[in-house]
From TrEMBL:
Pfam families: BacA (PF02673). The keyword Repeat does not apply. Its EC number is 3.6.1.27. It is a multi-pass membrane protein. It comes from Acinetobacter marinus. Bacitracin is thought to be involved in the inhibition of peptidoglycan synthesis by sequestering undecaprenyl diphosphate, thereby reducing the pool of lipid carrier available. Belongs to the UppP family. This is Undecaprenyl-diphosphatase. NCBIfam families: PRK00281.1-2, PRK00281.1-4, undec_PP_bacA. HAMAP family: Undec_diphosphatase.
Amino acid sequence: MDLLLFLKAIIMGIVEGITEFLPISSTGHLILASELMNFWTPEKSAVFVVVIQMGAIAAVIYEYWSRLWGAATGIITGEENGRRLGLGLILASIPIILMGLTFGQWVKDVLFNDITVAIGLIVGGLIIWWVEKNPRAINAPEVENISYKQAIYIGLIQVLSLIPGTSRSGATIIGGMMLGLSRKAATEFSFFLGIPVIVGAGLLDGWQSRHVLQGTTDWLVIAVGVIVSFISALILIRVLVAYVAKRDFMIFAWYRIASGLIILLFALTGWKLW
C-alpha cells in the first residue's frame, strides 16, 4: 500500500473541500495541486478530480437537508417557497447538463491545462471586481425569493464553469448578484445548484472511467478523497455563510487575478513553477 499516495489523496480532498464553494475554481486548484504533487497517473487523477467533488456536495446535502427536502416535496405539495426553489433549481440545472453531456469530454481533453486555468482565474477575478464595485439593487434577499427567470439566467451563466479556472461557484454567485440576489441568497443557491451537476458528473465520469481504476487500492484512494472533501467542505460552508453576511468578495477577486498572472507567467515563459 502506497502511504504517500493516500497522503496526497488527503491533501487533494482538503483542496477540493476548501475551494469547491469559494469563487476561485476548485477544478483549477485541483489540476494545479495534482501537477504539483505528481499525483497518480494523468488518467486516474482526472477521474479523482471529478469524483471527489461528490464528497463536497454531500456536505451541502447534510447541512441543508431540511430546506432541500422542503424544495423537493414543495414541487408535489405546492407549498410556495419550496415549489419555487425546487423548480428554480431544476430550470437552472438544465443548461449545464445538456452542455456537459455534449462537450464535457472535449473540455477535459482540450481545456484541462495551466493556461486555460490562468485565463479563467484572471477574467473571473476582473468580473468579481466589477460586480462588487457596481452593486445592484437586491430583489431576492433569501434563496426562496429567487424567480424562475433569475434561476434560468443563473443556469445559463453556470455553463461557463465548464471552462477550468472559471469556477462554478464564482459564476453562479456573481451571476446571481448581477441579477439582484443578496450575497447570502446567491451563495446558498450556488450550494444547492451544485447538487445535480456535481453528483451527475461524478457518477457519469466514474462509470465511464471505471476501467481506469483497477483494484481495491484505487477505490480506497477515491474513498479517502471523498471523505476528506466532505469534512473540509462542511467546515467551509459554515465559515463562508458567516463571511458573506458581513463582507464582500473582493479578496477573492484579487486572489484570482494574482494567482492567474503567476500561473500564466510561468506557463508562457517555460519556467518551472515547482
